[in-house]
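Why do we care about 3D structure at all? Because function follows from shape, and shape follows, mostly, from sequence. That is the central idea of this module. The next example makes it concrete: a single protein chain, its amino acid sequence, and then its structure expressed as tokens.
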Amino acid sequence: MFFRQLPTRDATLSYLFGCGSCHVAVAVDPVLGDEDWFIEEARKQDVRITHVIDTHIHADHYSGGRSLAERCGGVYCLHESNKGHVQFDFEPLADKQRIEVGNVAIDVLHTPGHTPDSTCLLVTDKRRGDQPWFVLTGDTLFVGAVGRPDLAGREVEMAGQLWDSLHGNLLGLPDETEIYAGHVAGSVCGAGISGKPGSTLGFEKRWNPLLGLPRDAFIEALTQEIPPRPAEMDRMVEVNLGLKPAPSVTA
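And the structure:
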């Protein structure tokens, strides 16, 4: 199995990983303008990108997911709750669905809270064992922080959903599970995000200040410290929903 992390604009992290022996790969959360990097990395690894996944409809950057999928011939994937909201075809992902990519297995976890469609991707290298190796947490769980709950305009409700998602889908995983999020420090998608690009679930359970709080205290803490809204947020969401054309971006 190979794994690549791409730090990109606006403190965003994107990912490319897959099975080198079977020559297949998955791209996660690519940013518009970074498509060439994914295509070149896939060429270096001698793999074909079969799936391009956005963990949610992004509000802080323009997604390059559809563009990359078109260029590499892979399917573009979003959580199934986006049916009827987006203006383009996509492969719907369901909670607990498993995607097989050679010897790599990806289990989809629906984790609403940051947004209603937020998902995490639990990844297992079957050649190493049956236990998941790492989880791509999108904007649900960051190193040192959690996702902001206000982008849907229902921050108290969404903060409660985020607590339920964290405790129902992530915190019960083995402590040694590695986590890789969608952003590092500098992003407005959460308050107090670390600059470190990865962690383990056990370390976060011990040191992330929000993960040990009971539900009501979590909601209160999360809704009292909300960062400023992303610049051009409405425009970015409209583009990522397919309501407006994507801007021209120079990589």
